[in-house]
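Running this now, will post back.
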Amino acid sequence: MKRRSFLKSSVSVCAASSLFSSAYLWAKSNETRLDLYTQRLSSDDLRQLISQFPTLLVASPQNTPVEVTLKPVIARRYSNQVYILFELSKEISIFNSLGEKTRAIPVPPVVGHIKDFAVDEKSQRIFVASGNTHSIYTIGFNGDVQNIFGEFGIDLPQQLSGIKSITSDERGLVHILNGHSNDVRVFDGQGVYHYSYAPRTFGKQANLVSIDGYQTIRVLGGKFRDIVYIFDVYGKPMG
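Update: finished.
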């Protein structure tokens, strides 16, 4: 991929109608529950919620300014706010229930590639999974790094290898979907390992792909990503 030379950026995000009026229609059509505290949103979902994504002016190979629409990489709804990481961005943008951008949380360059993030609104912090270091960065809403935890390895339960997805529960604990072991490993905000869990029906070739949740934990898996396993925050199966 050729490096893009940035000239200037312009963020223009607005909504043609109320964000969660549209969200209600989207949730209803997909038989999801809007009253869940947190949801992951796809690019198609966001197009129904936000009329225009941010744009960036870049220099073409002919050194001509070209306006590029930035694609959302990760988007998560928490209560009545949506947190979005756009491509080429080192900040997580926050939008309110009217589809208006209210603020942004800067992500320090030391994090590197952002694999996933989860929000702990009670403590005003986010957990960011780094794809470069197999680590979790705890970052305050002002962008300061509060903690870094996660040890690369495959032999001990507190070690991580191939972080796929993360979420934070109502206690502020981080549930990490670990690729190599194909299970969920739970740590507190200080990086202390607590326990692990996984769907009982899965074998060694299981394919767990994503995790979400707050008061209950939902793990998406299956060959066609069509099975949702539900747990309580302690890893006990609920359905």
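The helical segments are 19-29, 43-49. More later if anyone needs it.
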